[in-house]
Amino acid sequence: MNEMLRVGVIGLGSMGRHHARAWTEVAGAELVAVADADPRAVERAVRGRTIQGFTDPTAMLEAISLDAVSIAVPTGRHEEVAVAAMERGVAVLVEKPLAGDEAAARRIIACAERTGAVATVGHIERFNPAVLELERRLRENPLGRIFQIKSRRTGPMAARIRDVGVTVDLATHDIDIMRRVVGAPITRIYSETAQRLHSTHEDLLIALVRFSNDVVGLLDINWLTPTKIRELSVAGEGGMFVVDYLEQHLTFYENSAADTGYERLAIVTGVSEGNMVRYSIDRIEPLRAELEAFAAAARGERAVDVTLHDGLLAVRIAELALASARTGKAVDVDEASLLDGAPISSGS
Description:
The protein is 32% helix and 26% strand. By secondary structure, it is an alpha/beta fold.
């Protein structure tokens, strides 16, 4: 591999444009090519840059020597483009969700295993500094026993998304993060969905999940809210943490009725309002942190942070949420069988 990592971006929609920009800020990496079916998008991306542009990703992969590529095409094309890149020995970062369904996700994994290509999924919230600080604080056990985790991810409809609904497109973020924060697998999910404005898919999801350690979770996801909200809360015996993904804030609301030493939280007798603490967090761009980690993995300096099996699990649980909504019944989840015993990096 060249001393300078030669990278490309395939797909120049909203997220792909951010990838093209962020790659220029990653030390030791050089953006050399972009591709998109829309020639106007390509023209905008190459303007002012000494890079090559293509309207056909296969032509780009054949014409340009690349070490790594960001894949930000519509979800339905993830498999096609990822396989084409990996078969040419290119490391791939596939924007989440890994694929539109379990079968396509498994074929991407099979190709990675066959070719030995470095491959990861763009679960970008893993790199949000507020989430990383939450994980660090939780290791100190200020909450004691966790009771509930709740994720709210709402905002206007993304006009570009036509091949999947809000569950596969957005809830996969929260399934991944909730499992990681709780530190246990999901064992049951019940959901309701609605299609209010989207032409072909659901644009609202409300789901209840139960984890193996008896934590209860709530997912509130939609494309129907006129303002963008990205929030995670974790409540337990000692109080509640709240993450604002967008502002990169972490706030702790203390339960003053809990034993302040935390070692005897099991005898907590009630809940009352206590101190509120907002932690100081050094803000970073999660996308840039994600690309830096991917670049290091592509160079062989570290393992990927998010495995393809992490991506598969998020897609499969999202599919089970949709199945629950169709049947009106709760669905039991056996994560080990979903992954056929394959190791994952998140959760338990």
